[in-house]
Amino acid sequence: MNTHSLPRHPRTGVRAVGIVGGRPVYPIKGGAPTLLEQRDEVAKLLADDSYDGDVDELLKRADDIAAKIEQANQRDARLRQLRAANLPAGDPQPNPGQRQQPGMQPDDQGTPHPVNAAEAFVRSAALAHFRANGAVGKFSVEHRDAPTGTVTTTNGVPTRPERVPGIIPQNPDFPLLIANLLDRQTSSGNTLEYVRDTSGPVEGAGTWNKAAVVPEGTMKPQSGPFSWDTITTSLKTVAHWVPITRQAADDDGQMMGYINGRLTYGLEYKLDRQILTGNGTTEMQGILTTPGIGAYQPGAGSTDSKLITLRKAKTQGELALYPPDAVVLNPLDWQDIELDQDGTGQFRVITNVTEGAAALRIWGLQVVTSVAMAAGTALLGGYRTGATLWERQGITILMTDSHADLFLANTLVILAERRANVAVHTPRAFVKVTFAAAP
Description:
Major capsid protein gp5 fold, 6-stranded mixed sheet, elongated, 26% helix, 22% strand, alpha+beta
Protein backbone atom coordinates (compact mmCIF):
# COMPACT_ATOMS: atom_id res chain seq x y z
CA MET A 1 0.00 0.00 0.00
CA ASN A 2 1.26 3.48 -0.91
CA THR A 3 1.33 5.36 2.40
CA HIS A 4 1.18 8.67 0.60
CA SER A 5 -2.29 7.75 -0.66
CA LEU A 6 -3.63 7.34 2.90
CA PRO A 7 -5.89 10.15 4.12
CA ARG A 8 -5.00 12.70 6.76
CA HIS A 9 -6.97 13.37 9.91
CA PRO A 10 -9.40 16.24 9.16
CA ARG A 11 -8.61 18.01 12.44
CA THR A 12 -4.95 17.22 13.27
CA GLY A 13 -3.69 16.68 9.74
CA VAL A 14 -1.87 13.46 10.80
CA ARG A 15 -1.69 10.88 8.01
CA ALA A 16 -3.31 7.50 8.69
CA VAL A 17 -1.05 4.41 9.18
CA GLY A 18 -3.50 1.98 7.57
CA ILE A 19 -7.06 1.06 6.69
CA VAL A 20 -9.08 -1.37 8.86
CA GLY A 21 -12.63 -2.25 7.96
CA GLY A 22 -12.69 0.50 5.38
CA ARG A 23 -11.79 3.11 7.96
CA PRO A 24 -8.40 4.85 8.44
CA VAL A 25 -6.35 4.12 11.57
CA TYR A 26 -4.40 7.11 12.87
CA PRO A 27 -1.28 6.86 15.07
CA ILE A 28 -1.37 7.83 18.71
CA LYS A 29 0.50 10.97 19.56
CA GLY A 30 3.99 10.12 20.78
CA GLY A 31 4.26 6.68 19.08
CA ALA A 32 2.37 3.58 17.99
CA PRO A 33 -0.92 2.84 19.76
CA THR A 34 -0.65 0.68 22.88
CA LEU A 35 -2.50 -2.63 23.26
CA LEU A 36 -5.11 -1.02 25.49
CA GLU A 37 -5.59 1.82 22.99
CA GLN A 38 -5.98 -0.71 20.19
CA ARG A 39 -8.42 -2.66 22.36
CA ASP A 40 -10.54 0.42 23.01
CA GLU A 41 -10.54 1.35 19.32
CA VAL A 42 -11.68 -2.12 18.19
CA ALA A 43 -14.23 -2.33 21.03
CA LYS A 44 -15.70 0.99 19.89
CA LEU A 45 -16.04 -0.30 16.33
CA LEU A 46 -17.61 -3.58 17.49
CA ALA A 47 -20.18 -1.65 19.52
CA ASP A 48 -21.02 0.61 16.56
CA ASP A 49 -24.27 -0.74 15.04
CA SER A 50 -23.73 1.46 11.98
CA TYR A 51 -20.28 0.02 11.23
CA ASP A 52 -20.26 -1.04 7.56
CA GLY A 53 -16.68 -2.25 7.17
CA ASP A 54 -15.23 -5.78 6.94
CA VAL A 55 -16.63 -7.43 10.09
CA ASP A 56 -14.57 -10.63 9.67
CA GLU A 57 -11.35 -8.62 9.58
CA LEU A 58 -12.46 -6.62 12.62
CA LEU A 59 -13.19 -9.83 14.56
CA LYS A 60 -9.78 -11.23 13.60
CA ARG A 61 -8.11 -8.06 14.84
CA ALA A 62 -10.08 -8.29 18.10
CA ASP A 63 -8.91 -11.89 18.63
CA ASP A 64 -5.31 -10.92 17.94
CA ILE A 65 -5.39 -8.04 20.44
CA ALA A 66 -7.06 -10.21 23.09
CA ALA A 67 -4.36 -12.89 22.66
CA LYS A 68 -1.58 -10.34 23.02
CA ILE A 69 -3.15 -8.87 26.16
CA GLU A 70 -3.50 -12.37 27.69
CA GLN A 71 0.16 -13.12 26.89
CA ALA A 72 1.21 -9.85 28.52
CA ASN A 73 -0.83 -10.72 31.64
CA GLN A 74 0.80 -14.17 31.87
CA ARG A 75 4.28 -12.68 31.58
CA ASP A 76 3.49 -10.19 34.30
CA ALA A 77 2.13 -12.96 36.59
CA ARG A 78 5.22 -15.14 36.03
CA LEU A 79 7.49 -12.19 36.73
CA ARG A 80 5.73 -11.41 40.02
CA GLN A 81 5.80 -15.11 41.00
CA LEU A 82 9.51 -15.38 40.22
CA ARG A 83 10.38 -12.26 42.22
CA ALA A 84 8.39 -13.55 45.22
CA ALA A 85 10.02 -17.02 45.19
CA ASN A 86 12.48 -17.83 48.01
CA LEU A 87 14.63 -20.83 48.80
CA PRO A 88 13.68 -22.90 51.90
CA ALA A 89 15.14 -21.67 55.17
CA GLY A 90 18.68 -22.90 55.71
CA ASP A 91 19.47 -23.42 52.03
CA PRO A 92 22.45 -21.46 50.73
CA GLN A 93 21.54 -18.92 48.07
CA PRO A 94 23.77 -19.51 45.02
CA ASN A 95 25.56 -16.54 43.58
CA PRO A 96 24.60 -15.43 40.05
CA GLY A 97 25.99 -17.96 37.59
CA GLN A 98 26.97 -20.41 40.33
CA ARG A 99 26.19 -24.08 39.61
CA GLN A 100 23.60 -25.63 41.91
CA GLN A 101 25.12 -28.08 44.37
CA PRO A 102 23.91 -31.72 44.60
CA GLY A 103 20.72 -32.09 46.58
CA MET A 104 19.38 -28.65 45.64
CA GLN A 105 17.56 -29.70 42.48
CA PRO A 106 13.76 -30.15 42.44
CA ASP A 107 12.19 -33.56 41.91
CA ASP A 108 10.54 -34.77 38.68
CA GLN A 109 7.40 -32.76 39.45
CA GLY A 110 9.38 -29.58 40.08
CA THR A 111 8.95 -29.72 43.85
CA PRO A 112 11.98 -28.04 45.45
CA HIS A 113 12.05 -30.46 48.39
CA PRO A 114 14.49 -33.35 48.91
CA VAL A 115 13.37 -36.45 47.04
CA ASN A 116 15.47 -39.03 48.91
CA ALA A 117 17.36 -39.55 52.15
CA ALA A 118 20.68 -38.34 50.72
CA GLU A 119 19.22 -35.04 49.53
CA ALA A 120 17.43 -34.48 52.83
CA PHE A 121 20.72 -35.03 54.63
CA VAL A 122 22.95 -32.71 52.59
CA ARG A 123 20.28 -29.96 52.56
CA SER A 124 19.59 -30.11 56.29
CA ALA A 125 20.29 -27.21 58.62
CA ALA A 126 21.80 -29.78 61.01
CA LEU A 127 24.59 -30.59 58.55
CA ALA A 128 25.26 -26.89 57.96
CA HIS A 129 25.50 -26.36 61.74
CA PHE A 130 27.77 -29.42 62.07
CA ARG A 131 30.17 -28.03 59.47
CA ALA A 132 30.05 -24.53 60.90
CA ASN A 133 31.18 -25.87 64.29
CA GLY A 134 34.22 -27.61 62.89
CA ALA A 135 32.54 -30.99 62.29
CA VAL A 136 32.58 -31.88 65.98
CA GLY A 137 29.84 -33.85 67.73
CA LYS A 138 26.99 -35.81 66.19
CA PHE A 139 23.58 -35.22 64.62
CA SER A 140 20.85 -37.08 62.73
CA VAL A 141 18.38 -36.37 59.93
CA GLU A 142 15.29 -38.47 59.22
CA HIS A 143 13.77 -38.83 55.76
CA ARG A 144 10.35 -40.48 55.94
CA ASP A 145 9.45 -42.35 52.77
CA ALA A 146 6.52 -44.03 54.52
CA PRO A 147 3.19 -42.22 55.10
CA THR A 148 3.45 -39.66 57.87
CA GLY A 149 1.81 -40.63 61.16
CA THR A 150 1.12 -38.97 64.50
CA VAL A 151 3.10 -40.09 67.55
CA THR A 152 2.00 -39.43 71.12
CA THR A 153 4.73 -40.08 73.68
CA THR A 154 5.30 -39.97 77.40
CA ASN A 155 8.97 -39.42 78.26
CA GLY A 156 9.80 -40.57 74.77
CA VAL A 157 7.75 -43.80 75.00
CA PRO A 158 4.56 -44.19 72.91
CA THR A 159 1.46 -44.38 75.07
CA ARG A 160 -0.19 -47.26 73.22
CA PRO A 161 0.67 -50.06 70.77
CA GLU A 162 -0.39 -49.86 67.14
CA ARG A 163 -3.41 -52.05 66.46
CA VAL A 164 -4.34 -52.97 62.91
CA PRO A 165 -8.13 -52.74 62.56
CA GLY A 166 -8.60 -54.99 59.54
CA ILE A 167 -7.49 -56.08 56.12
CA ILE A 168 -6.04 -53.45 53.79
CA PRO A 169 -7.61 -53.38 50.28
CA GLN A 170 -5.53 -54.14 47.24
CA ASN A 171 -4.13 -51.36 45.05
CA PRO A 172 -2.19 -51.52 41.77
CA ASP A 173 1.57 -51.02 41.88
CA PHE A 174 4.66 -51.55 39.73
CA PRO A 175 7.32 -52.41 42.29
CA LEU A 176 11.07 -52.73 41.92
CA LEU A 177 11.58 -54.20 45.39
CA ILE A 178 9.74 -56.84 47.40
CA ALA A 179 8.88 -54.17 49.99
CA ASN A 180 6.96 -52.23 47.36
CA LEU A 181 4.69 -55.22 46.71
CA LEU A 182 3.22 -54.83 50.19
CA ASP A 183 0.84 -52.27 51.55
CA ARG A 184 2.99 -49.79 53.51
CA GLN A 185 1.75 -47.95 56.57
CA THR A 186 3.21 -45.91 59.42
CA SER A 187 3.16 -47.23 62.99
CA SER A 188 2.89 -44.73 65.84
CA GLY A 189 4.29 -47.05 68.49
CA ASN A 190 7.05 -49.54 69.24
CA THR A 191 4.66 -52.49 69.68
CA LEU A 192 2.61 -53.87 66.80
CA GLU A 193 -0.60 -55.87 67.37
CA TYR A 194 -2.60 -57.29 64.51
CA VAL A 195 -5.13 -60.02 63.76
CA ARG A 196 -4.00 -63.03 61.72
CA ASP A 197 -6.51 -65.24 59.92
CA THR A 198 -5.77 -68.86 60.92
CA SER A 199 -8.88 -70.44 59.44
CA GLY A 200 -6.84 -72.94 57.47
CA PRO A 201 -7.19 -74.10 53.84
CA VAL A 202 -10.33 -73.17 51.96
CA GLU A 203 -11.39 -75.56 49.22
CA GLY A 204 -14.19 -73.36 47.97
CA ALA A 205 -16.49 -70.56 48.94
CA GLY A 206 -19.21 -73.05 49.89
CA THR A 207 -17.20 -74.30 52.87
CA TRP A 208 -17.62 -71.06 54.80
CA ASN A 209 -19.87 -68.76 52.80
CA LYS A 210 -23.41 -69.56 53.91
CA ALA A 211 -24.95 -66.48 52.32
CA ALA A 212 -28.32 -67.44 50.83
CA VAL A 213 -31.65 -66.06 49.70
CA VAL A 214 -33.76 -66.05 52.87
CA PRO A 215 -37.58 -66.00 52.89
CA GLU A 216 -39.20 -63.39 55.08
CA GLY A 217 -39.49 -64.45 58.70
CA THR A 218 -36.81 -67.15 58.35
CA MET A 219 -33.60 -67.35 60.38
CA LYS A 220 -30.57 -66.01 58.52
CA PRO A 221 -27.60 -68.39 58.10
CA GLN A 222 -24.27 -67.84 59.84
CA SER A 223 -21.10 -68.08 57.75
CA GLY A 224 -17.95 -69.70 59.04
CA PRO A 225 -16.20 -71.21 60.76
CA PHE A 226 -13.44 -68.63 61.14
CA SER A 227 -10.50 -68.55 63.51
CA TRP A 228 -8.22 -65.64 64.35
CA ASP A 229 -5.07 -65.03 66.39
CA THR A 230 -3.94 -61.72 67.83
CA ILE A 231 -0.24 -61.35 67.07
CA THR A 232 1.88 -59.07 69.27
CA THR A 233 5.37 -58.18 68.13
CA SER A 234 7.77 -55.26 68.12
CA LEU A 235 9.24 -53.16 65.36
CA LYS A 236 12.82 -54.13 64.49
CA THR A 237 15.74 -51.86 63.76
CA VAL A 238 17.87 -52.41 60.66
CA ALA A 239 21.08 -50.37 60.65
CA HIS A 240 24.68 -50.17 59.42
CA TRP A 241 27.44 -47.57 59.11
CA VAL A 242 30.43 -46.69 56.96
CA PRO A 243 33.49 -44.50 57.61
CA ILE A 244 33.99 -41.34 55.57
CA THR A 245 36.87 -38.86 55.54
CA ARG A 246 36.31 -35.28 56.61
CA GLN A 247 37.25 -34.15 53.10
CA ALA A 248 34.57 -36.39 51.57
CA ALA A 249 32.07 -35.19 54.19
CA ASP A 250 32.63 -31.62 53.02
CA ASP A 251 31.66 -32.59 49.46
CA ASP A 252 27.88 -32.90 49.01
CA GLY A 253 28.29 -35.07 45.91
CA GLN A 254 30.47 -37.64 47.68
CA MET A 255 28.20 -37.51 50.72
CA MET A 256 25.14 -38.35 48.61
CA GLY A 257 27.10 -41.13 46.90
CA TYR A 258 27.88 -42.76 50.24
CA ILE A 259 24.30 -42.46 51.45
CA ASN A 260 22.53 -43.58 48.27
CA GLY A 261 25.11 -46.03 46.94
CA ARG A 262 25.94 -47.84 50.16
CA LEU A 263 23.78 -47.04 53.16
CA THR A 264 20.30 -46.71 51.66
CA TYR A 265 20.83 -49.61 49.24
CA GLY A 266 22.07 -51.81 52.07
CA LEU A 267 18.94 -51.13 54.14
CA GLU A 268 16.62 -51.87 51.20
CA TYR A 269 18.52 -55.10 50.44
CA LYS A 270 18.25 -56.30 54.04
CA LEU A 271 14.58 -55.28 54.25
CA ASP A 272 13.78 -57.47 51.23
CA ARG A 273 15.49 -60.46 52.86
CA GLN A 274 13.63 -59.87 56.13
CA ILE A 275 10.26 -59.70 54.36
CA LEU A 276 10.92 -63.13 52.89
CA THR A 277 12.85 -65.06 55.53
CA GLY A 278 12.88 -63.10 58.83
CA ASN A 279 12.41 -65.46 61.80
CA GLY A 280 9.68 -63.35 63.45
CA THR A 281 11.36 -63.24 66.87
CA THR A 282 14.74 -61.52 66.90
CA GLU A 283 14.09 -60.43 63.29
CA MET A 284 11.12 -59.16 61.31
CA GLN A 285 8.34 -61.57 60.39
CA GLY A 286 9.16 -63.19 57.06
CA ILE A 287 6.33 -64.40 54.84
CA LEU A 288 8.06 -67.72 54.16
CA THR A 289 8.43 -68.39 57.91
CA THR A 290 4.79 -67.54 58.73
CA PRO A 291 2.65 -70.58 59.63
CA GLY A 292 -0.33 -71.23 57.37
CA ILE A 293 0.94 -70.09 53.99
CA GLY A 294 0.07 -72.30 51.05
CA ALA A 295 2.51 -74.58 49.24
CA TYR A 296 2.65 -76.05 45.76
CA GLN A 297 5.11 -78.58 44.35
CA PRO A 298 4.75 -80.76 41.25
CA GLY A 299 4.14 -84.41 42.01
CA ALA A 300 6.87 -87.02 42.00
CA GLY A 301 8.12 -87.70 38.49
CA SER A 302 6.51 -84.53 37.13
CA THR A 303 8.09 -83.02 34.02
CA ASP A 304 6.30 -79.67 34.39
CA SER A 305 8.49 -76.74 33.43
CA LYS A 306 8.83 -73.77 35.77
CA LEU A 307 6.48 -71.84 33.50
CA ILE A 308 3.73 -74.44 33.92
CA THR A 309 4.42 -74.83 37.65
CA LEU A 310 3.79 -71.13 38.24
CA ARG A 311 0.50 -71.32 36.34
CA LYS A 312 -0.74 -74.21 38.47
CA ALA A 313 0.37 -72.45 41.67
CA LYS A 314 -1.60 -69.40 40.59
CA THR A 315 -4.71 -71.57 40.35
CA GLN A 316 -4.13 -72.80 43.90
CA GLY A 317 -4.03 -69.20 45.13
CA GLU A 318 -7.26 -68.43 43.28
CA LEU A 319 -8.97 -71.48 44.83
CA ALA A 320 -7.99 -70.12 48.26
CA LEU A 321 -10.06 -67.02 47.29
CA TYR A 322 -7.01 -64.72 47.28
CA PRO A 323 -6.08 -64.10 43.64
CA PRO A 324 -2.30 -63.59 43.33
CA ASP A 325 -0.94 -60.32 41.99
CA ALA A 326 2.84 -60.92 42.00
CA VAL A 327 5.55 -63.54 42.24
CA VAL A 328 9.10 -63.28 43.63
CA LEU A 329 11.72 -65.40 41.90
CA ASN A 330 15.43 -66.03 42.11
CA PRO A 331 17.15 -64.53 39.03
CA LEU A 332 18.30 -68.01 37.95
CA ASP A 333 14.72 -69.34 37.93
CA TRP A 334 13.46 -66.30 36.02
CA GLN A 335 16.27 -66.87 33.52
CA ASP A 336 15.05 -70.44 32.97
CA ILE A 337 11.49 -69.20 32.39
CA GLU A 338 12.49 -66.49 29.92
CA LEU A 339 14.75 -68.86 27.99
CA ASP A 340 12.23 -71.72 27.92
CA GLN A 341 11.76 -72.91 24.31
CA ASP A 342 9.32 -75.16 22.53
CA GLY A 343 10.22 -77.97 20.14
CA THR A 344 10.84 -75.53 17.29
CA GLY A 345 13.25 -73.34 19.23
CA GLN A 346 10.74 -70.54 19.81
CA PHE A 347 10.70 -68.83 23.19
CA ARG A 348 7.50 -69.51 25.10
CA VAL A 349 7.74 -66.24 27.01
CA ILE A 350 7.79 -63.20 24.73
CA THR A 351 9.90 -60.40 26.23
CA ASN A 352 11.34 -57.20 24.86
CA VAL A 353 15.08 -57.83 25.07
CA THR A 354 15.86 -54.25 24.05
CA GLU A 355 13.94 -52.71 26.95
CA GLY A 356 15.49 -54.01 30.16
CA ALA A 357 13.54 -51.56 32.33
CA ALA A 358 10.14 -52.80 31.15
CA ALA A 359 7.87 -54.28 33.80
CA LEU A 360 8.32 -58.06 34.11
CA ARG A 361 5.10 -60.06 33.98
CA ILE A 362 4.14 -63.74 33.71
CA TRP A 363 0.61 -65.20 33.64
CA GLY A 364 -0.69 -61.72 34.49
CA LEU A 365 1.52 -61.48 37.60
CA GLN A 366 4.08 -58.80 38.40
CA VAL A 367 7.53 -60.41 38.59
CA VAL A 368 10.20 -59.31 41.06
CA THR A 369 13.57 -61.04 40.89
CA SER A 370 15.73 -61.06 44.00
CA VAL A 371 18.71 -63.03 45.29
CA ALA A 372 16.89 -62.95 48.64
CA MET A 373 14.75 -65.79 47.22
CA ALA A 374 16.52 -69.16 47.21
CA ALA A 375 16.98 -70.75 43.78
CA GLY A 376 14.47 -73.47 43.04
CA THR A 377 11.66 -71.75 44.97
CA ALA A 378 9.29 -68.84 44.44
CA LEU A 379 6.70 -66.95 46.46
CA LEU A 380 3.43 -66.25 44.68
CA GLY A 381 0.56 -64.39 46.28
CA GLY A 382 -1.76 -61.48 46.80
CA TYR A 383 0.87 -59.36 48.48
CA ARG A 384 -1.22 -56.27 49.23
CA THR A 385 -4.15 -58.25 50.60
CA GLY A 386 -1.93 -60.63 52.56
CA ALA A 387 0.61 -58.48 54.37
CA THR A 388 1.42 -54.92 55.47
CA LEU A 389 4.82 -53.37 56.04
CA TRP A 390 4.59 -51.15 59.14
CA GLU A 391 7.33 -48.53 59.51
CA ARG A 392 8.01 -46.59 62.70
CA GLN A 393 10.30 -44.14 60.94
CA GLY A 394 11.80 -43.52 57.55
CA ILE A 395 15.51 -43.85 56.87
CA THR A 396 17.45 -41.88 59.48
CA ILE A 397 21.01 -40.76 58.70
CA LEU A 398 23.40 -39.97 61.57
CA MET A 399 26.97 -38.62 61.39
CA THR A 400 29.53 -38.24 64.18
CA ASP A 401 33.26 -37.94 64.85
CA SER A 402 32.96 -39.67 68.23
CA HIS A 403 33.59 -43.30 67.33
CA ALA A 404 36.61 -45.28 68.55
CA ASP A 405 39.86 -43.69 67.33
CA LEU A 406 38.43 -42.34 64.06
CA PHE A 407 38.70 -38.78 65.40
CA LEU A 408 42.50 -39.10 65.39
CA ALA A 409 42.37 -40.49 61.84
CA ASN A 410 40.42 -37.46 60.60
CA THR A 411 37.51 -39.79 59.79
CA LEU A 412 33.78 -39.54 60.45
CA VAL A 413 31.03 -42.16 60.70
CA ILE A 414 27.77 -42.10 58.75
CA LEU A 415 25.08 -44.45 60.09
CA ALA A 416 21.74 -45.29 58.47
CA GLU A 417 18.85 -47.04 60.18
CA ARG A 418 15.13 -47.71 59.90
CA ARG A 419 12.54 -49.42 62.12
CA ALA A 420 9.86 -51.65 60.65
CA ASN A 421 8.12 -55.02 60.75
CA VAL A 422 5.82 -57.07 58.56
CA ALA A 423 2.28 -58.04 59.57
CA VAL A 424 1.33 -61.21 57.67
CA HIS A 425 -2.36 -61.05 58.50
CA THR A 426 -3.61 -63.45 55.79
CA PRO A 427 -1.14 -66.33 55.31
CA ARG A 428 -3.48 -68.10 52.83
CA ALA A 429 -2.90 -65.22 50.38
CA PHE A 430 0.57 -66.65 49.70
CA VAL A 431 1.77 -69.83 48.01
CA LYS A 432 5.34 -71.07 48.34
CA VAL A 433 6.33 -72.75 45.08
CA THR A 434 8.98 -75.47 44.85
CA PHE A 435 10.07 -76.25 41.30
CA ALA A 436 10.71 -79.80 40.14
CA ALA A 437 14.34 -80.81 40.11
CA ALA A 438 16.02 -80.63 36.72
CA PRO A 439 16.18 -84.03 35.00
